[in-house]
Amino acid sequence: MANNESNDTSTQNSKFLQLNSSIQILNESISIQMPQFRQKVLKTVHSKDAVRRKQIACHIYINDLESVPGYKALKKQICRICICEEETSKFIAPCKCKGTAEFVHQECLKMWILEQYGVNKIYNDELYCEVCNHKFEFDVDFNDRFDIKQFQRIKKRTKLCWLIQIFFIILFIFGSIEIALGFGINSLATVAIIVVFGLITISLTIYLIFNFSSAHTIQMIENWNFQNYKPKSSASLPKKNTKKITNQFIRVNQIYFT
User: Fold this and answer.
1) DSSP assigned state of 38
2) What's the CA angle centered on 224, arms 221 and 227, to 5 degrees?
3) What is the percent of the chain with per-residue pLDDT over 90, rounded to a whole number?
4) Which sign does the torsion angle of CA 63, 68, 69, 71 carry?
């Protein structure tokens, strides 16, 4: 009888294990997938860093909600800047604020910071919440990019200087050719003049290329991501040093009893 009971219990346990493992497999196969939106550039915010004398730009992206048909927001979160519930960009909670001021769109926060504080606060890592004074934690990269669209922002007098330099470069090139064809290269004086013209032409060309490239180089703010605020747990708080107190207590007791 005992053997039969043990066999019955073992078969029941095996059935239970099989059922439990099947449930685990089912639960592992089910995963909540967040919708993957296509992103597009809403606008490009331009700024000037007066300290480092550089042109700065940052793309503000927006989620294309139509790229995920039938999408509806799962949580009732409201951006404290644009007062919008739609997930036009990633919702974050970067500071200690609660209630209606807890969540904000990451791209809305970027645009607000650029318009309010400029670039120096970002570069020096000095961004704080204006309500709770919590320091924002973020990662950011500053990368130099060549942007031909900057030609429209260049001043007219700078463009005029470039035209004058191009005129003198062409003038010295044709002058060297005319001297070589007219007087030949047998004379030392002719060769010296051609060499001088050539050095001036090379110098002007290098200077023109440098100015043109530097005027069209812009520093882009890229990979700018904020981190959500995480309150410090009691376990992470520094422990009080009670070892010295206990040692002093033992010494006092030893002196008293002796």
Assistant:
1) E
2) 160
3) 38
4) negative
What's the 3-state SS for 91-109? Answer: EECCCCCCHHHCCEEHHHH
Strand partners, 238: none
Q: Using DSSP bridges, classify how beta strands 217-226 and 54-64 pair: parallel, antiparallel or unpaired.
A: parallel
pLDDT of amino acid 69:
63
Minimal CA–CA distance to 165: which of 215, 208, 209?
A: 208
Q: What is the mean pLDDT of the chain?
A: 78
List 143's β-bridge partners, or say none.
Answer: 220
The band of 66, judged by pLDDT with boundaries at 50, 70 and 90, is low
State pLDDT tens for residues 186-229.
888 888 999 999 999 999 999 999 999 998 999 999 999 999 99
Spatial separation of the C-alpha atoms in residues 108 and 80, rounded to whole Å: 9
SS3 label, residue 46: strand
Greater model confidence, 220 or 243 = 220
Euclidean distance between CA atoms 26 and 61, whole angstroms: 37
Could you please state the CATH topology (level 3) that the domain comprising 38-147+218-231 is classified under. Answer: Herpes Virus-1 (3.30.40)
Domain boundaries, the chain: 38-147+218-231, 150-215
Read off the tokens for 98: 């609660």
Structure tokens at 82: 């644009």
Put simply, whether the predicted model's pTM sits higher than 0.85 gets the answer no
Structural tokens at position 5 = 């009971």
Question: If we measure between CA atoms, which residue out of 108, 103, 104, 92 comes closest to residue 60?
Answer: 108
